[in-house]
Amino acid sequence: MSFLILSALGLCLGAMPAAAQRLIAAPVRPAVPVVPVFAGPAASLRPSLAPVLSPALSLSAPALRPAAAVAPALALPAAAAVAAPAAVEVLAWPAVPSAEAAEAPREAASSFPALQSLRILGAAAARPAAGRNGAVLDGVFEGRRPRTLNGVSDPALPNDAAAQAARRVVAILVRHRGRLTPEAERDLLAVLGEAQAAGILRPAVAAMLFDPLVAQRLPPMDDARRLDYARRFADMLDAELTSGGFVPGKPGAEPWDAMARRHAALLDASAYAPRPAGAPSLLEEPGFIAELEALSGARFSGGNAVRPLIDGPASAAERERLMLGAKASIHLAAWAIYDDVSGERTADILIAKHRAGVKVRVMVDGQTALLHGGRTLARLEAAGIEVARWRDPARPYDGLHAKVLVVDGRAAVAGGMNVGDPYLHMDPRGQKWRDTDVVFEGPAALEAAAFFRSLWNRQAGVAPIAGEAAAVPGSGGARVSLVSAEPSGESRVLLAHLKAIRGATRRINIENAYFITFPALRDALLEALARGVEVNILTNSLESVDEPIVGVPILESLPELMRAGAKVWLKRGATLHSKFMTVDGVYAGIGSFNLHPRSVRYEVELLLQALGGALPGELDAVFARDQAEARRVERPADLAIPATPLNALVRRFMFNQL
Fold it and tell me: Which DSSP string do the residues of 444-487 spell out, in sequence order?
């Protein structure tokens, strides 16, 4: 939460009059050099993170400005920025006064998360002259504030009440002399929470972005783009304010520790006690499978043909074959469709099938659509294809992360791949990530059609879908269930993972792009290790991860598990985007779900579970191949986790967003 606040404060400080900045800035030269904090290319940051982590940047802006240009009074001691991956400045921090410099690193390391001990977040306070605080705030956020955009009124545009909320934020900074103390944090959260409850959080952020003193420090952008940027940043603030219980009238999210205890109680209510290593797998017990169905809310059906699609070319070919053969309908849901070779080729096929009389519907995440695929989506709409930009009006910070293609209600593709070159590899010169999809026919495909229909029919401005015809059973022998989860309810996809882990007696293989443990997942894996179950984890390294800000949290999730006996491999080279887990060679789970907090808190996810058949063994073989190409980490010390204050701040205050 404080990380979000600090991001907003960078905007505020950029807009403050020089006199107000002097009240906050340290009056003495720091005892150590200062440098900006870096966190990787803005273009590679997930849209959900980038507006928070780089508030001075527009994701697709070609020019990037130093953080020091956004908030000149902020900087970080050079010694604290060791090993921060260089590329784009994300946020600059208050200078450490000379009197505090010697103690700051020790205190930050020993007593974090006590906020008052993080002296590196404070700045030496110049004692303000009596009566000056009010005067220096005169004129703050009173600059250009457009009342309409292209002649149309928009509630997200700055207004007088929003400007007043922005001034209150600055007043708190001045009153606390730039120190983010617990009292200052409480006051800031109160103001932001009141702004959200009053419906003026977006215009308050917009008031900052439209102010000339801030605007001149941002990359060039027109008013429409500036307003979109304000919306995204405000939605992220909204998410954390609401989850933290700081919005009057809105309950906060269930604390992670409380969730772990509740989930443990659900698992402990089983008629089957966990079995020691070497015993028959519980995932072959009909009664245990019935409990898995109850927890996940999805029943297993037989008669499904299931086959893994390893990497982009295999998935692209299967998707094209299915779409070209469509007779009645093509339903495509994805986090994003890109303006690239893969996006254009997919659009070509969809438009051709639409003109041939096939009903084509496309659904993408509404927030991501502001950043990716605008040209391709517009082309689909111009051809007469219905496009839904998924949003939950009650939770505007949630996202559609599930990916599924359903053709005629009889065949479907699901997994980790979006419609873009990093995933489908259609551009020979483009990025080529390691990813996994699965194609399936039979009753499970009808479940996929029902999942798409449920999401589609709740979106505004689209014609509802009627039910599909009965599915024809496939020729395969796999028993399959399709589990979905929305962040406004119970994370049944997570419960399915936890239950499968509880049933293990031999081996758990986890291949996941963003392996960032939260209490329930950590406890489940530690319990399995304590029973002697082999746990193998393959995830991204600092070298391979596409989102630099999550690199260190991934590494920080591994030492405790390694000390308990887990074996770890880190990806080399291009990004790992795959998400699957196998248990005891008899169970496979594959889908869009990343084993990280954000997939639980804020994203719609989809998981295909398979029992028996060939899929578990096929994915185990894929895992073995990926292991051979990855780097085995033998000891926790070999993880070489960079030690910077940013690591702790991100994990403590941005945990829900990781």
Answer: HHHHHHHHHHHHHTTSTTSPPPPPPPPPPP-S--EEEEEEEE-T
Residue 306 structure tokens:
């299931």
pLDDT digits (tens, 9 = 90+) for 547-588: 887 899 999 999 999 999 999 999 999 999 999 999 999 999
d(CA 360, CA 383): 11
Of 199, 220, 166, 192, the residue nearest 14 (C-alpha) = 166
Alpha-helical regions (H) of 503-596: 519-530, 548-556, 559-563
> 79: which DSSP letter?
G
The 10s digit of each residue's pLDDT in 253-277 is 999 999 999 999 999 999 999 999 9
The 8-class DSSP code of residue 204 comes to H
H or E stretch covering 15: helix 2-15
Averaged pLDDT for residues 282-292 = 98
**Residue type for 173, please?**
L
Its pTM stands at: 0.78
Alpha carbon distance 248, 250 (integer Å): 6
The type of residue at 265 is A
Q: Is 139 exposed, middle or buried (0-12, 13-18, 19+ CB in 10 A)?
A: exposed
State the Rg of the chain over Cα.
Answer: 25
Hey, is 81 helix, strand or coil?
A: helix
Helix pair angle (341-355, 374-382), 10° resolution: 10
Largest CA distance in the chain: 83
For residue 229, what pLDDT band results from cuts at 50, 70 and 90? confident
Q: Return d(Cα 142, Cα 323) in angstroms, integer.
A: 54
Residue pair 525/509 in contact (Cβ under 8 Å)? The answer is no
Q: Cβ–Cβ contacts within 10 Å for residue 173, how many?
A: 23
> Which run of H or of E encompasses 20?
helix 18-24
DSSP reduced 3-state for 595: coil
Task: Of 93, 67, 98, 66, give the one whose Cα is nearest residue 80.
Answer: 93
Q: Is pLDDT at 630 greater than 90 in this prediction?
A: yes
At 308 the three-state DSSP class reads: strand
Structure tokens belonging to residue 473: 């059973």
Q: Which long-range contacts (CB under 8 A, 24 or more apart) does 210-215 make?
A: 210/143, 210/144, 210/145, 210/146, 210/158, 211/15, 211/140, 211/141, 211/143, 211/144, 212/143, 212/144, 213/14, 213/15, 213/16, 213/143, 214/11, 214/14, 214/15, 214/70, 215/144
- Beta-carbon contacts of 588 under 8 Å, excluding residues fewer than 6 positions away, are 580, 581, 582, 609, 610, 615, 616, 619
Per-residue confidence (pLDDT) for residue 14, from 0 to 100:
56
Q: Which two tokens stand for residue 309?
A: 């699609």
CA torsion sign for 81, 84, 87, 93 is negative
- Over residues 350-401, the pLDDT tens digits come to 999 999 999 999 999 998 998 899 999 999 999 999 999 999 988 888 999 9
pLDDT above 60: residue 346: yes
Residue 248, helix vs strand vs coil:
coil
Between 70 and 543, the higher pLDDT residue: 543
Element containing residue 511 per DSSP (H, E):
strand 507-512
Q: How far apart are CA 590 and CA 625, in angstroms?
A: 17
Buried b (16+ CB within 10 A) or exposed e, 327-341: eebbbbbbbbbbbbb
Written as six digits, the tokens of 586 are: 């008899």
At residue 17, the pLDDT reads 58
